[in-house]
Amino acid sequence: MSDAASAAAARALIGDSEFDRDTAVFRREEGVYDLELSAGWTILGAVNGGYLLAVLGRALGDALPHPDPFTISAHYLTASRPGKAVVRTRTVRTGRTLSTGQASLFQYDEEGDEVERIRVLASYGDLAGLPDDVRTTATPPPIPPLEQCFGPEDGPDPLQGGSAIAGRLMLKLDPATLGWALGQPSGKGEMRAWFGLADGRDADPLSLLLAVDALPPTAFEMGLQGWVPTVELTVHVRQRPAPGPLRVSISTRNLAGGFLEEDAEVWDSADRLVAQSRQLARVRLG
Amino acid sequence: MSDAASAAAARALIGDSEFDRDTAVFRREEGVYDLELSAGWTILGAVNGGYLLAVLGRALGDALPHPDPFTISAHYLTASRPGKAVVRTRTVRTGRTLSTGQASLFQYDEEGDEVERIRVLASYGDLAGLPDDVRTTATPPPIPPLEQCFGPEDGPDPLQGGSAIAGRLMLKLDPATLGWALGQPSGKGEMRAWFGLADGRDADPLSLLLAVDALPPTAFEMGLQGWVPTVELTVHVRQRPAPGPLRVSISTRNLAGGFLEEDAEVWDSADRLVAQSRQLARVRLG
């Protein structure tokens, strides 16, 4: 657990937390942002796709006239590594309620040339400006209370051994979807967890982009091992989350031809569906 | 019903059908395609978003080294009109299994300047080259046999009066999701239909991009009236569809703050889930 996490009694604030420091972008010129991808959000050396999306989302939030990602679609091109990066943004259209932008994250090859890692299209708006009408048939995921769920730190064999990101997250998995960690996957493509940031920072629209891609892959509960790299991930942010831990439910219904979809829902402490996402991922059997 | 449709006994072939002619793109120079948006795919004057996506998908299929859209994300910027248009594509990355491209559709303002209508990011592959492993928990939508379902031509008051697209499609709606047409919406955000092209052309990956956005909006069955413009639509094409009519199921679980998601599933005659999509749409009450 990181230093900040041990100090969780004094909860980190939005704007002054590990997540905020590690997603910081520095405007070099209009629409161009320098940054450092942190090694703190890696799993076995690979930088987490949700963290990367949050970095891109933050740059776009600065570049566009609206603050919040309403829908953001990312295509993952090459594997990102911790270290220097640059985000280049473009404003596509500016409207009253929504503005649309494009962004690419680049890193550098040995000659110092830019290599594109991810390209994103997004439409931004202002969540605070929306009417509060809700009509929903969606219900929160059935997950036991937080203290009956299990995280990497609860097992003799860490669930995500060698994964720096485990120290950045408060992730407590529903025991009903933990069979894979005990060598007994259920065969169902479902995973549920309580989610927060280890230093106690509350959720905001940017951290929702992280939350949708932070659980172990559904493929593990389907009995598959190995790597499940994301091809494309689209997130809809539907509401500004209330303070307190989130519940995240992910599911896969269809694996075919070596590809699967993974859907995520994120619920806040006020029982509101605050984000939905879907990704297309490749199954690379280990 | 169009001339071609009346001749449906002699089914139109892929490559020689209304859909193929109306999505034709003509390469002006590398990556740039001229075309004419047909008035045949409009609903009350608005060009159908799935038809537009198929046009963009066709241009990208020509520009990229791989033929089939595996995942394609479109952000809709301004309203398209029937008439002249140009698609400009860019190859983002070329890999062995997947290549990624970007495309924009433009039309012309009164001065002849280009106005961007839609921007798209997509990853293409070769559906024919995929292994045929399938693990799925998804089941086909519960829909009565085709002859027990109803289309615009079956009612005294056409379901989509004034809509040219009705003549291009074979669309037969499940009576259980037709309450809205009789002034008695169920309140549930679900719609199911048999789907085909009126001239009998079989489905292919491009026409799946049309199929996901061809049903009346779920909002109608939720008791809402008015316009539901798409902000963003992402489609995953999972399999090459078998010949025969498709079953399309769309659903909305959550309307909040004036926005809703609409998920679509498309099943082929071999009971395979051939496409999944999700869109974020705005609700503009009439």
TrEMBL record, chains A, B:
This is Thioesterase family protein. Residues 39-123 form the Acyl-CoA thioesterase-like N-terminal HotDog domain. Pfam families: 4HBT_3, 4HBT_3C. It comes from Streptomyces misionensis. It comes from the Bacteria. PANTHER family: CHROMOSOME 23, WHOLE GENOME SHOTGUN SEQUENCE (PTHR38110), THIOESTERASE DOMAIN-CONTAINING PROTEIN (PTHR38110:SF1). Residues 160-283 form the Acyl-CoA thioesterase-like C-terminal domain. InterPro entries: ACOT8-like_C, Acyl-CoA_hotdog, HotDog_dom_sf, Sec_Metab_Biosynth-Assoc, TesB_ACOT8-like_N.
